[in-house]
Amino acid sequence: MASSNDVAGKAYDQFILFGDSITQMSSDPAMGYGLQPALQDAYSRKLDVINRGFGGYTTIHANNVFAKFFPAPETATVRFMTIFFGANDACVEGHQQHVPIETFKENLKKLIQHPATVAQKPRIILITPPPINEYQLEGFDHAKDTAHPSRTAAITKTYGEAVKEVGKSLNVPVADIWTTFMHSVGWQEGQPLIGSRDAPRNEKFDSLFVDGLHLTGDGYRLVFSEVMKEINATWPDESPNNLPMVFPAWTTFYE
Q: Which of 41, 49, 46 is nearest to 17 (CA)?
């Protein structure tokens, strides 16, 4: 029979989701389905999934705050971390949130190679920004009194490609949700980008977004699927079914 002393003092390792508003809103019950609760359910009793999403942040902001919240090894063990930026960095040149693409790539590398990251050695997954829907984004921009589009489908695509370049250069897995979103609605390379004004409006694509930028439950399902695919492919021993519970099942107390 297990005693309380056998399990006393144990702490859950952490799975930190670091990103912008798309990460922050992934805990919102209004979405109906979000990345954070989906991962917490998958790793129930095994890991603590922590949302560190910051609405409006770019990779410049990310590097300014990272060391202020990321725990030292003496405080907690970070087993996984997603880095999910680019949706704001990819704003058009001249927009307040725009970050040049080369700077964006360097900023991602700084986060991956940051001394705080190196001290923890978490399993890192980069996530590309999702595509955007210019048809829906018109309303989002209008609500902010923006005279011109803040983002374009074509520019966002290049920032997704930049994330993949960084992942390849540093041997870090990438959840390529940009491609997943596009393929889910039948887009093929060489065709006009679905979501852009060069292609007809696509009803199924609309269903993935709240406002052309932020995601619905259907959109978050695709993100969750890609993140889990990378975990299962890269660290199969860390998949939810292969991790033990931190505290034992209740039946062990009667053995």
A: 49
Structure tokens at 18: 């670091």
Q: Concatenate the DSSP letters of all residues of 124-150 into one string.
A: EEEEPPPP--HHHHHHHHHHTT-SS-S
What is the domain range of residue 182? 4-254
The more confidently predicted of residues 181 and 252 is 181
Written as one letter, the residue type at 81 is: M
Euclidean distance between CA atoms 68 and 18, whole angstroms: 13
Condensed to tens digits (0 to 9), the pLDDT of residues 54-69 reads 999 999 999 999 999 9
Give the percent of the chain with pLDDT over 70: 94
Q: 134-168 pLDDT, tens per residue?
A: 999 977 775 554 457 899 999 999 999 999 999 99
Catalytic residue, chosen from 4, 21, 207, 239, is: 21
Rounded CA separation 82/64 (Å): 17
pTM comes to 0.93
Report the Cα 129 to chain-centroid distance in Å.
8
Q: Is the Cα dihedral 184, 172, 212, 95 positive or negative?
A: negative
pLDDT at residue 9, rounded to an integer: 56
**Count of the separate structural domains present in the chain:** 1
21 is catalytic: yes
Q: Is residue 172 within 8 Å of residue 179, measured between CB atoms? A: no
Tokens of 111: 């986060």
d(CA 51, CA 36): 7
The CATH number for 127's domain is 3.40.50.1110
